From TrEMBL:
Family matches, as InterPro entries: Aldolase_TIM, NMO
Lineage: Eukaryota, Fungi, Dikarya, Basidiomycota, Agaricomycotina
CDD domains the UniProt entry points to: NPD_like (cd04730)
Keywords annotated in UniProt: Dioxygenase, Flavoprotein, FMN, Oxidoreductase
Gene3D superfamilies, alphabetized: Aldolase class I (3.20.20.70)
Keyword Oxidoreductase: yes
Record-given protein name: 2-nitropropane dioxygenase
A single GO molecular function term of this UniProt record: nitronate monooxygenase activity
Organism domain of life: Eukaryota
Signal peptide interval: none
Amino acid sequence: MAGASGGSLAAQVTLGGGFGFLGAGYETIEKHRSELSIARSILKVDAQAPLPIGVGYLGWLLDDPKNKGQELLSIALENRVQAIWLSFGNDLEKWIQLIRNTESNREVKEKTKIFIVVSSVQEALVAANKWKADVIVAQGTEAGGHGSTSRTPLLTLVSSILAAIPQDCPPIVAAGGLVNGGHLASLLTLGASGAVFGTRFLLSPESQYTDVQRQALITASTSDSVRTMAFDYARNTLGWPRGIDGRGLHNSTVEDFEKGVDVDVVRSRYHEGAKRNDPDRIVIWAGAGVGMMDKIQPAKEIVEEIHRECTEILRAAATLLSEE
Ligand SMILES: Cc1cc2nc3c(=O)[nH]c(=O)nc-3n(C[C@H](O)[C@H](O)[C@H](O)COP(=O)(O)O)c2cc1C
């Protein structure tokens, strides 16, 4: 999660028994190195040993020459992170090849797992058949942060992908609007191999969100989470590929944008609001499950709780069959 998940959150998720990702997002080279070393020190992993977390890169930012995409990616590879997550780019194949070529030049034995985010069957087929992704992340319209404008609900998306891709396909993990172990259990029974929780972890002390942002998430209801381009216009982050917008909490920035207020005015109000850390102006990305989140909890505890709930629910579900 760009701007929200750094080395500390990623490491704590892994310590809890999940698999944590840090979001490289808009980070500079120096910041990226420093977040990876934070993760390494929390996980107490030697400098040469593989790092049991992943790093997410935004394809369109890697593509922009001023962001030194190749250098950013090579930091993750030097750190031997176990996974790289790629999304929202016009040429993800180029970066997949770069990862694979770097690994074969270095004669790396354990290859970095490549996660590719998709939001349609067609994209899943490309990721599986053409790009040989190791894991496919099926992202439904409920997901917080950026995603497809196509508005396919998660259950429909996961079922359609599972029906369309071959038996020996990469595992599918489901993302979007998930809050608890019941959600995880339902997706596992549907046939997904795992699930991605984003917004839920914004409510951990280890996320890079501020207390003001966390409080806004706690008080938000489900209907407060909307898909919009308002925040990208306001922050001038407009390099996203076509067909991508973001899901966040509705506030006055969204209202101004929807009313057609001049973009310069929207921007200046946004930046004024940012100085005050005003939740009614700044972006607070949030998935559709936000209305079910009501407390701040350490990331490790969140993973453990989801796991416990999921196990209990799967056991209870099995009793439905034993009565046959
Ligand atoms: C604050 C925030 C930042 C995100 N940044 C990224 C990102 O950099 N790359 C990406 O592929 N997805 C990003 N996402 C989307 C997540 O990968 C994931 O699909 C989403 O959080 C799942 O939905 P949920 O938030 O309802 O759990 C972000 C989500 C949030 C909430």
